[in-house]
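Hi there, hope your week has been kind to you so far. For a while now I've been wondering how a particular protein folds. I'm sending you its amino acid sequence along with the backbone structure tokens. Could you read through the record and tell me how the tokens relate to the sequence? Take your time with it, there's no hurry, and the full record follows here.
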Amino acid sequence: MQRHANAPGTVSHVPQALRQPPKDFERRLLSRNGRGDILAANHLGRALFSPVYADPVRPPNNARFAFLSPHATEFFRHWDEVANDTVAMLRAEAGRDLYDRRLTDLIGELSTRSEEFRRRWAAHNVRMHTTGVKLLHHPVVGDLDLPFETFPLPDGPSQFLLTYTAEPASPTQDALNLLASWAATNDDTERSAPANDSQSADSGETPD
């Protein structure tokens, strides 16, 4: 389980809904707040949104990725819908907390750097979709059609659990299984890398 406890505004513990038996891991993938920050994710959730995690800024932020990353329009197959929902989410959050400095800074950054964001922000749309189908193109496993639901969490007034499902025996389910294997392999590699580096340093070995 990956969480971002040191980042301001994140949860202080991993939500119980993300700490479920393995059979449920493919449904309960991550939690986020009203700014679009990913607060916590299990291994599959982190792998699914690996393009968002590629940004070194922490916590990873869906809004920043959607409007500022050159990869967003490829990752989100229906980017216009995602962009509209993202702006609506930020508008709703601004209505809940007018004095959220991190939210104000984010909106200012997006307004300065993205014409697409400025145009949508000016439309004052606050209609959000809490259910639907997320159409993604993942760089490792290709197209994914993922029905999703968003549920409020008791950890805070604007923290949400996102669940994604796939039809059994569907191409998307097969792709998720492949993605889970890829995530496990990458996780094992990351865990072993520091130990290998330390052993090399201790032994005094140098590359040829």
Observations:
- The chain has a mean pLDDT of 82.
